Amino acid sequence: MNKIALYPGTFDPITNGHYDIIERAKNLFDEVIVAVAVSVDKKPRFTLEERINMVEVAIKDLENVRVVGFDNLTVDLAHEHNASVLIRGLRAVSDFEYELQLGYLNNSLDDTIETVYLMPKLQHAFISSSIVRNLLKFNGKTKHLLPKEVQQIIGSMNSCTLP
User: What is the pTM of this model?
Assistant: First the structure.
């Protein structure tokens, strides 16, 4: 039986930190599904379609990794795709309390689904999508924070080359 893991998030946009977590997860599980949330409450900068496209382009060379969009409970999505594990990334202690609460909530909804917390490599630990979005707002340098292909997509959306 294949062990399928679901990595849910907004991915607005996908960063090198996200990509690092995906690479680590694919080495632990038979299949990893990157689940891009609609997240209307977060008011994403990029549309769902744009975010899905960015993830697809970033992971195109990774085997046994695929992308889906979603707008329902994470545990329900996990059931739809036969995933028994949720992947969550932890960058710093500040992430821990929120992620722990989310893990307990998901466990209260379905105790057959486990949450696994993965840390990105230290060089990516400070990267967040919100930091990237703030840099993009001011045309700041982001190429060291994003997968190369994602940097190119965002640059073409802005009709300019980002630093």
Answer: 0.92
